[in-house]
Amino acid sequence: MPLFENMNMKSNSKVKKKLLIAAVAVLAIVVAVILVCAAYLHAGRSSLRGQRSRDAEMLYEGHSYMYDEDNINILCIGVDARGEADTVGQGDALILVTLNVRDKTIRCLNINRDTLAPVKVFGVAGKYITTQNLQAALAFSYGSDVADGAELTEYTVSELLDGLPIHAYVTLDFDGISKMNELVGGVTVKAMEDLDRADIRQGETVTLSGEQAVYYVTERNSASEDIGTNAARMDRQKQYMCAWCGLLKEKLKRNPLKIWDMYEQMSGYISTDISRTGMLYLAWKFAGAEFTDDGMYELPGSYERENYYDEYIVDDAALKEQLVEMFYREVE
């Protein structure tokens, strides 16, 4: 009997040793995965660090404010090149998305395409001529390609916002709105106005199909004699994007890695200078951030019409107040 007991003890000892080795191996793998993920996310955050604000410190109504370095500012550009041969198109929708990684909040500044802003003008041969106050949408059209157009638009928006740093851009061809809508399973809205081409009537609740989404986001009566027809379209864009972002957040909460698959599905319609690590970092932060209708801002100003074209003139005093609220922190 003692012999068998001794054999059992040795057998139990071997089993415990194997279990201990297995546990250590699993723990090592878990630690390695955590370290890799942490390194990947750190690389993603580092890739999104841009230039500092030109006005790092601002005095407003007797109080000192510092630019909040925890902001990541991404310029989203809706590009309309439909019916425009031999051109990269115009930046027909301009939304600056700001993710604050400390407060876990998302704010969006909807910039009217008709806003007068500093635009770099180039000749036919691509030679720089001058910088003029033109409609912000035109900045993109002077680019030699999509990336160049995006960088020129970044310059225009940054100058318009007192040198605010823009860390990255994302462009979306309007032809890709249908696919974007499909990625989240369709967006449900309460129609803000009649849209005949989309077969939509004001007040009805509709889950937009691909083509309906395109019309809902892009349609405007540019031939109207009324001033500021783009304003109604911006309201629809705001409504649509709030709903779309809510659906996107739910998908990314379940799996932030899905952002890569979404990007691949949108290839051909989308362009960005965000790295793959940057995409994952943003997806992870976006999924855990707060985003509501109250986080959607519009550039303050008013419309004028000059030489048959609508021009949106920024209210400088109101803009300064808005910049302080969105991008700065009061110095204690």
Quickly describe the structure:
It is built from 9 helices and 15 strands. With 332 residues, it is an alpha+beta fold. A hairpin with a 2-residue loop joins strand 1 (57-60) and strand 2.
Structural class: alpha+beta
Order of helices and strands: HEEEEEEEHHEHEEHHHEHEEEHE
Per DSSP E runs of 2 or more residues, the count of β-strands stands at 15
Mind telling me the C-alpha Rg?
A: 25 Å
Query: What is the end-to-end distance?
Result: 79 Å
Q: What amount of the residues lies in strands?
A: 25-35%
Oligomer: single chain
Q: What fold name stands as the CATH topology? A: Aminopeptidase
Instruction: Give the name of the CATH architecture.
Output: 3-Layer(aba) Sandwich
* Sheet having the most strands: 6 strands, mixed
- Give, in spatial order, the strands making up the sheet with the most strands: 11-8-3-4-5-12
Low-confidence segments, given as residue ranges, are 30-42
What is the class in the CATH system? Alpha Beta
Summarize the amount of helix as a percent range. Answer: 40-55%
